[in-house]
């Protein structure tokens, strides 16, 4: 079984407008699918850096003298590129979200299909896991997680139910959590609501929104003029941040205008939103929610 099926492979790498002797970064290395495609377009002078915080991905490192795998979270992209003597790059690729491998390994706790310990960490070095969120967060913070990251209207009721249940018995596994929340999971909406609950917990455990913001801001700093940023997102929270940042370099509000009413933005948008075609979705069902946005630094 393939470690991870790269989504929108050609479109994402095409979006980088590869220079054969350029320096590129794949911040979500995973199974190396996008990285292999980038390397195939580089000459001997080109260079590719990969980032991945997931220990399971490190065994996929490519044996190529043009490639360096950095075993860290991509929120530290600027720091670790500098460590390798790189201050600016020609292009950055990010395929956000959870890899096929992470979903398919039951004990990681990412998938609604399996019973597993409450974990959901993308790196085992992370101090916070799903167990801690479910069993130790107070009511205010737990409700925030479900409201902000799961966009669940029933967040207050779900939170109270969890808190009442854990007073009697610790909630240790995903099946135990499903049992506690059974009344919120009617058959016709079960998968959708569970996906929202899991997404909320996972985002909190891995600080995904904060990481994404830090990454985007640093990407703007380290991209060369005319350097490209190619980002695939999988849910509206991610896509909203990416869209706003590419549009005007901010996550909220509008850029300041000058005396004449003009404002300058750091990126030029390249093309329109790209989504997978039916053929790709048929081969790889997880591609169905993917959205690719591409921008070029001015």
Features of the shown structure:
seven-stranded mixed β-sheet, 298 residues, alpha/beta, 12 helices
Taking the alpha carbons of the first and last residues, their distance comes to 41 Å
Name the structural class.
Answer: alpha/beta
From the spread of the alpha carbons, the general shape counts as globular
Main sheet: strands, sense, barrel: 7 strands, mixed
Helix percentage: 25-40%
What's the Cα radius of gyration? 20 Å
Q: Quote the beta fraction.
A: 5-15%
Number of helices: 12
Would you count the extended β strands for me?
7
Oligomer: single chain
Q: List SSEs in N-to-C order.
A: HEHEEHEHHHHHHHEHEHE
Widest beta sheet: strand line-up: 3-2-1-4-5-7-6
- Low-confidence parts: none
* pLDDT averaged over residues: 95
Structure summary:
With 298 residues, the protein is of the alpha/beta class. It is built from twelve helices and seven strands. The mean pLDDT is 95.
Notes on the protein architecture:
The structure is a single chain. This protein has 298 residues and is α/β, with parallel strands linked by helices. Helices cover 39% and strands 14% of the residues. The chain has helices at residues 9-14, 33-39, 77-83, 100-104, 130-136, 139-150, 155-168, 174-180, 190-206, 208-222, 236-248, 278-283, and strands at residues 23-26, 47-51, 67-70, 89-95, 223-233, 267-269, 291-297. A seven-stranded mixed beta sheet has the order 3-2-1-4-5-7-6, sandwiched between helices. The longest helix is centred in the middle third of the chain and has 17 residues, at 190-206. The model has no long low-confidence stretch (mean pLDDT 95).
